[in-house]
Amino acid sequence: MKKGTEMTKNRRTFLAGAGVSLAALAAGSSTAFAAGTIAKSPNGRSLAGVFPIGWTPCKPDNKFDADAMVRQQQFLNRGKVAGMAWPQNASGWQSLTPAEWNAGAEALASVKGDTALVLGVQTEGFNVANSQAYAKKAKSLNADGIISLVPPNASDADRIAYFKALADASNLPIMVQAVGDVSVDQLVALAAAIPSIVAVKDEAGDPLERAPDLLKKTGGKLEDFSGGGGYTFFAELELGFLGTCPYTGLADVLQACFNSYRASKKREAYDIFGRFLAFNSLPHSNDYVMKARGVFPEDAIMRSNPPAPGAGGGGRRRAGPITEANKAEIRLALNSYLKPFLVA
Predict the structure, then answer these.
(1) pLDDT band at residue 40, thresholds of 50, 70 and 90?
(2) Which domains does the chain have, with CATH numbers?
(3) What is the largest CA-CA distance in the chain?
(4) How far apart are CA 164 and CA 147, in angstroms?
């Protein structure tokens, strides 16, 4: 059986088992387990929608730029984006010192607005005590939730113990970021063992293939998010996903797509998503968009995780060898084709 045919069959079986008609889905009503399952933070903010993984902006000397971090959160607030998660892989979390982590968390928490703040608390080696310290800091900053990668090369029992320690330290909703060999059944077991786990950013395998099984086995109580830049978000919405964790540059556009979809305006959501994909087809678009939109300075660099041994230095320019022609093309696309959708 071809992969696409198998996915379609799985989706139909899933929807039928959930008692949801395909006709209702086509009309734009709530998907399989979406109704009534959106979690809220202790601050009353919805933990569904677009939650981009924040950049870690630095000055040309690779020193953390707290002012640029504040502007990033203000940008998301203006764009009415549901939330932001920082720091994760796209933020270069492994490169951050504890002082930089604290400075970044404090900078984000200083911004008042409706955009939820979810702080990443995994630490080098997934040290439980150090991760708990970050979780406690997140609580003290009145964050809306925490997120952590699943510890690699750990037993199921150790993974449950790790997330239970985070739950005990923070008393906040938790999002799990699944990468590598984390199975659907392991995510189901985690969510069952720790009620404060409300969502998963699923990047272990193909999230579109895993979604029906994950949502069915958790009764829709575990919100399904994905990453991958948001490039398959519309297909994810069709399967019952309640969010995505893309990059920040067009988070307001994807949020508009989500809002339209949830309001039963599926054709409008589809058209907005098409503009998002068209923009991201431009060379260096994601690397440069935050500069083109005036959030980060032209000479900013984005912190990245340390490379593998022998691969060079840590901090680097995400934009790479971008040309002035590339920059002009990106600005033209923003002004000509996306301007009505750029809420921020």
Answers:
(1) very high
(2) 33-341 (3.20.20.70)
(3) 57
(4) 13
